[in-house]
Write a structure and sequence with these properties.
Order of helices and strands: EEEEEE
Shape: elongated
Number of strands: 6
Largest sheet: 4 strands, mixed
Distance between the termini: 27 Å
Number of helices: 0
Helix content: under 10%
Length: about 110
Amino acid sequence: MKGIKCCVECAGYSLKKHKCTYGAKDPGKATDSFYADCPLDDAEPLRHGRWIPTEYDSYADGNPVYDKFECSECGYEHNGEGDTLTAFCPDCGAKMDATDTNVGGKGGAG
């Protein structure tokens, strides 16, 4: 499996829901690292990225308050509305390990 050691490293595994999004349901033995019914011959490794601030709307305490962010892996644009950015890119599935510093109060995902 492409150097993957367990399901958690696969792009098809949802950490939030603790399940396979590709349809596997049989966890196998407790000592197994993969679902027994994994549908993939060659699972994809989990991608890691970060949100990169691209546009700012205003300033707070002399620092820009960003309202647009871009995925470092695929370039997907997140509008940054709300208090936090998503922990995974909704486009490519990359786990957002960190957000660039100085994002003016927007919460990081890592």
